[in-house]
Amino acid sequence: MKFELVDRQGYIPDLNYGAAGQELSCFIPTDYPFEQVSYSSGEGEVVIDKHTWRFFFTQEGIGIQLMDGIVTLKEAEHFLMAIKSHIWGETHQQVQIFMAGVTPK
Predict the structure, then answer these.
(1) Which of 5, 13, 42, 64 is the least buried, fewest Cβ under 10 Å from its Cβ?
(2) pLDDT digits (tens, 9 = 90+) for 60-92
(3) Is residue 39 part of a domain?
(4) What's the rounded Cα separation, in Å, for the pair 37 and 22?
(5) Which of 79, 30, 84, 86 is closest to 62 using CA atoms?
(6) The dihedral sign for the CA sequence 91, 74, 1, 31
């Protein structure tokens, strides 16, 4: 399952990457303990509550993909809203959440 967080004006705040081994903390809200599995060029994977999530950049915004594990749509929505608030702040209203897939050619 893949999601995208997209600001209508294309704005992504400057991300403050964490210390070595915790770089992806810039994407993850502080109330979600995580273990970073991989990191390269601002993107990578983390394990949160036995679920593997991948964070990456898209043409329009930030991509988040559930790589391993099962969550309900409600759990995914709660997590995505927390990430949105963590990155853009509580009052920023311009960010939309999309489910994403491969577009047929």
Answers:
(1) 13
(2) 899 999 999 999 999 999 999 999 999 998 888
(3) yes
(4) 10
(5) 84
(6) positive
Task: Decide if 105 is inside a domain.
Answer: no
The residues, ordered by sequence, that sit 6+ positions from 40 with a Cβ below 8 Å of its Cβ are none
3-state secondary structure 19-82: CCCCHHHHCCCCCCCCEEEEEECCEEEEEECCEEEEEEECCCEEEEEEEECCCCHHHHHHHHHH
pLDDT band at 10 (very low <50, low <70, confident <90, very high): confident
Predicted confidence at residue 55, as pLDDT, reads 97
pTM: 0.91
* Amino acid letter for position 62: I
In a domain? residue 78: yes
Domain count, the chain: 1
Say how far apart CA 18 and CA 101 lie, in whole Å: 29
